[in-house]
Each structure stands twice: as C-alpha cells, then as structure tokens.
Amino acid sequence: MNCLNDTFRAVKAASRQLNLIDEKTINSLLCAVADEAEKSASDILAENTKDLALMEPSDPKYDRLKLTRERIQAIAADMRQVAQLPSPLGKVLSKTVRPNGMEITKVSVPFGVVGIIYEARPNVSFDVFSLCLKSGNACILKGSHDAHNSNRAIVEVINRVLITFGIDPHTVVLLPADREATAQLLQAVEWVDLIIPRGSQALINYVRNNSKVPVIETGAGICHTYFDAEGDLAKGRAIVNNAKTRRVSVCNALDCLLIDRSRLGDLPQLCAPLADSQVVIYADEQAFAALQGGYPSTLLEHAVPESFGTEFLSYKMAVKTVDGLDGAIEHIARYSSKHSEAIVSENPQHIARFFKEVDAACVYGNVSTAFTDGGQFGFGAEIGISTQKLHARGPMALPEMTSYKYLITGNGQIRS
C-alpha cells in the first residue's frame, strides 16, 4: 500500500489550525454534525447492513457493530451533550511568581494528533471525533475491517460538516482497514502524539508491543466480583446479575464470580437470576457440586484453566471458590486486567482492605461493575477506560484528553 506519511502530515497541520478556532464555533460544529448524523441515518444504516452481513449474529462483536436509528439518535444526543460540556482547554492549573519576578503559569493544552485503533464499534468514530474536537485534537481513526463501510459513511458525514464550517477535513481521517495502515500509524512518531487502542486484550497487547508512539491502554476488562463470607445474598444476587447480563459485550461486564468457600450453600440462589438470561457458568469443582441441581444442567460446565482470566463478552461466566478475602485478592492479582473489580460484603474492614489491596482503575464495594463509565461517574462522554497508571486511569473524559505546558512571562530577566 502507499505510504501514509502525507496523510499524517496533513492531520498534523490541521491540528495546529484547531488552536485558532473559538469554543463557540466548536460547539456549533458538534451540534451540526449531530444534526447531519440524524439526517443521514438511512445512508449510515445501509452501509452498516453491509458490515453486519459479513458477521455471524452469534459473534459477541455483532451487538457492538450493529447500528439502529435509535442508536444513531443516542449518538447524536451524546455529541450535543459534549457541546454543552465546559472546554478543558486553557485551564490555569497553577500559577507561581519566582523571587526574580518571573511568572510561571501551567495551562491545559491539546495533545495535538490522537490515533485511535478500535474494533467493530462504529459508534466510536462519532464519539472519538466529538471528544477530540472539543479538546482541540485532530484524530486519526483506524477501525477494523468488520466496520469499515460503517466508519467510512460516518467520516463522510463529519467531513461534509467540517467543510461547511471552513475547517480542514483532515481534522478527522479514517485510515484503510488493513494491517499495514496500523503498522504505519504505530511508527508515525513525527506526526502522531498519542495512540489509544480500544478493543480486545490481543489488540491492546499488539499496539503496546509495536508502537513507537506513546500509548494509553483502554478497553479490555476481565472483571471479578467477590462474594464475601459476610456478603448480603439479596445484594449479591442483584449485583451479579446486573454486572453480567445488563450488556455482555462491554468491557465492564462481569467475567468471574469469586465466592467464599463458607458461602457455597448460597451459590444456587446467588446465580439463579442468571438462568433467565441463559448464562453459561464454568464452575470449579466445588462450585460445580454446589450448583448441581440448583442451576440448569444445560447451562453448567466444568471450568478449565482457560475459564479464568478470560473476557467472555458473551453470556458466559466463570465461578471460582476461594478461601476468604486473601484467596479473592490473590486470584484477582493473578487474573485481573486492572479494569473493574467488586466486593459484596457487610464487613467494613473487608471492604477497606479490598479497596487498598486490589489494583484496578475502579474498585467497588456493594456496587455493580456496570457503572464503570464516564457518564455514570458524572464526567460526561468518555474516550475509553484507561487500565494503566500514567497520565490517566479509569474513565477518560475531556480533561484526560489534554496535556499541559508552562507559560513563562517576565520583564527582561536573564539567568546569571
């Protein structure tokens, strides 16, 4: 394929021009894109149908890939919400005056060019564009082959509006769907400031291992809920069912239920609501014995080593018996992707220790992991859930899409 350096160079130039656009224009543009998305829904859905035709409905990614008129309306509403959020740019983070009169001001600024590599989720194209534009960043989108027709239709909508506003359409660019484009993006250190992968652990590992551009890891969620010896059964039933079945294809969905050995007798009641959603349970030996006769046999399987540490993204869940809080913390430390972990317990000391020792971006006490989402945290829209520790962790909203720089002013000061 052709070298993409000219494209990268054009996006970099467009990112510099974004610094000159006022916030009112940015907000108007976002609302105009939302309007155009709704007007063009039939065209977008026609292209999305082409992508869906190439994927089996049983594939866990099918629901993520699928667009509907209602989903497009929700996407448009999200963009209008982003337009209403305060700008994260130009915020004075600190200001000091040195003894020599030199004034040092730390202010928030855009990264510049953000590359997003993502799998079969065409809504990400709109989401990323709105968040990047609001935070002053140009964006390079590298979607998967699975969603290429959908992504192309979406970017065409965005570009039409950009041109109407007199803004360089290179503010958002969709790369070809092949792997060579990904490889070139990961090497584009001269033009790209940041890469954010959104998708499976395999995708994230590939980007981390091959990128010369700085990376913020988001997406993969191997999430556990520990039902403690002092857990409340009613709370546990509701939390486990919600975390597992609310939406199985998202990264905050429950993958593994850990149960204290002393509460195995309550396991059938704890898991009972899952049967209504046809959740297949992969249980270890002790949990399997406890569930026999109390959970549908057609939905009960023996766990294998691969059952643990797996992000199922479907109506499947592992169950592991542990020896108390120590066993739960040890299991999570071994298998967690550091996304979202929860404990169900009425013992404040157990919750406090779980909070201290579990290493994850979001740690819950008596709450479903389904809440790991920027909107649910009150942050507004998000670009993803960061599972690392440098720069950003947890839901990445507009403030996390900025860096900062120091502005130094004076009156002729020189250094001796």
TrEMBL record:
<dbReference type="InterPro" id="IPR016162">
    <property type="entry name" value="Ald_DH_N"/>
</dbReference>
<dbReference type="GO" id="GO:0055129">
    <property type="term" value="P:L-proline biosynthetic process"/>
</dbReference>
<keyword id="KW-0641">Proline biosynthesis</keyword>
<dbReference type="GO" id="GO:0050661">
    <property type="term" value="F:NADP binding"/>
</dbReference>
<dbReference type="InterPro" id="IPR015590">
    <property type="entry name" value="Aldehyde_DH_dom"/>
</dbReference>
<dbReference type="InterPro" id="IPR016163">
    <property type="entry name" value="Ald_DH_C"/>
</dbReference>
<keyword id="KW-0521">NADP</keyword>
<dbReference type="GO" id="GO:0004350">
    <property type="term" value="F:glutamate-5-semialdehyde dehydrogenase activity"/>
</dbReference>
<dbReference type="Pfam" id="PF00171">
    <property type="entry name" value="Aldedh"/>
</dbReference>
<dbReference type="InterPro" id="IPR016161">
    <property type="entry name" value="Ald_DH/histidinol_DH"/>
</dbReference>
<dbReference type="InterPro" id="IPR000965">
    <property type="entry name" value="GPR_dom"/>
</dbReference>
<dbReference type="InterPro" id="IPR012134">
    <property type="entry name" value="Glu-5-SA_DH"/>
</dbReference>
<dbReference type="InterPro" id="IPR020593">
    <property type="entry name" value="G-glutamylP_reductase_CS"/>
</dbReference>
<comment type="function">
    <text>Catalyzes the NADPH-dependent reduction of L-glutamate 5-phosphate into L-glutamate 5-semialdehyde and phosphate. The product spontaneously undergoes cyclization to form 1-pyrroline-5-carboxylate.</text>
</comment>
<keyword id="KW-0560">Oxidoreductase</keyword>
<comment type="pathway">
    <text>Amino-acid biosynthesis; L-proline biosynthesis; L-glutamate 5-semialdehyde from L-glutamate: step 2/2.</text>
</comment>
<keyword id="KW-0028">Amino-acid biosynthesis</keyword>
<keyword id="KW-0963">Cytoplasm</keyword>
<dbReference type="GO" id="GO:0005737">
    <property type="term" value="C:cytoplasm"/>
</dbReference>
<protein>
    <recommendedName>
        <fullName>Gamma-glutamyl phosphate reductase</fullName>
        <ecNumber>1.2.1.41</ecNumber>
    </recommendedName>
</protein>
<feature type="domain" description="Aldehyde dehydrogenase">
    <location>
        <begin position="39"/>
        <end position="212"/>
    </location>
</feature>
<comment type="similarity">
    <text>Belongs to the gamma-glutamyl phosphate reductase family.</text>
</comment>
